[in-house]
Amino acid sequence: MVVSSRAIVAFGFGCFSLACLTTPALAQATDGAVRKSAAAAPAQAQPSAAAAARPKPAAPVAAVFGTVDLKAVFDGYDKVKAQKEEFKAAAMAKHNDLMKLQSEGQEEAQKLSKMTPNSVDAKKIEDHISEIKAKLEAGREQAQRDFALRESEMLATLYKEVQDMVQRLAEYRGMTYIVQVSNEPISGSDPNSVMAAMAKTVVYADPRNDITKDVIHNLNLRYQAVSGVTPKAGARTAPAGN
After folding, report:
1. Tens digits of per-residue pLDDT, 115-132?
2. Which range is least confidently modeled, 17-31, 76-90, 139-153?
3. What whole-number distance in Å separates Cα of residue 106 and Cα of residue 197?
4. Is the full-model pTM beyond 0.85?
5. Domain ranges of the chain
6. Residue 82 — φ and ψ, nearest 5°?
7. φ/ψ of residue 179, rounded to 5
8. 129-154 burial, b for 16+ CB within 10 Å, e for fewer?
């Protein structure tokens, strides 16, 4: 059954009249119950001991952004250039070793062509050629694995050094975030450069907050101290750290 609004109003006035007709004792008992309830309410609302002992979270740090061009950093870091040369020299040395095996195999193949087929000597040369082929194939596969791992480890070490320097310079300049950008120019005659620019997350960044040159300069200073290689001049100075 739906209760009408008139019935609700009538019930409200009826309760009001009943309250006015109650005895003083009932009124006092009711008042005492109200006081007890009011006194018990704050105790129930108090937080638990664990919640009270929990430390308040620290206020968030204001975001101050800087930028860095990692490609430019790797291109300008003298250690990267030196390790590229070492990598190339090691790869060339391994290539020369494999070429010696290949040349040996070609010489054996020429000898085989002059011998009587299925002869004892021909059989020995065929076995030798098979052995050379196996060594050559195994050497190539091993070289690929070794140099892939060496390159990966080299890049990981270099990136950690760059990341450490970026952090030092960011803290020195009071920056809380460093965003990667590309400072390569856009050319209308090169569609790839335009598409790459359009795919960038950062459309504009104040160049005064770019730390690319500082990172390159201080990385080269640190590398000079370790290896004795003199870095190129022209970069800004900032604390290199240890």
Report:
1. 888 899 899 999 999 999
2. 17-31
3. 51
4. no
5. 1-35, 65-227
6. -65, -45
7. -100, 135
8. beebeeebeeeeeebeeeeeeeeeeb
Residue 223 CA to residue 161 CA, distance in Å, equals 10
Q: Which amino acid is at 205?
A: A
pLDDT digits (tens, 9 = 90+) for 152-179: 999 999 999 999 999 999 999 999 999 9
Number of H helices, E strands in the chain: 8, 2
Beta-strand pair 177-180/65-68: parallel
**Residue 190, CA distances (Å) to 116, 194, 200 in order:** 62, 7, 16
Residue 239 above 60 pLDDT? no
Residue 24, Ramachandran bin (φ over 0: left; ψ between -120 and 50: alpha; else beta): alpha
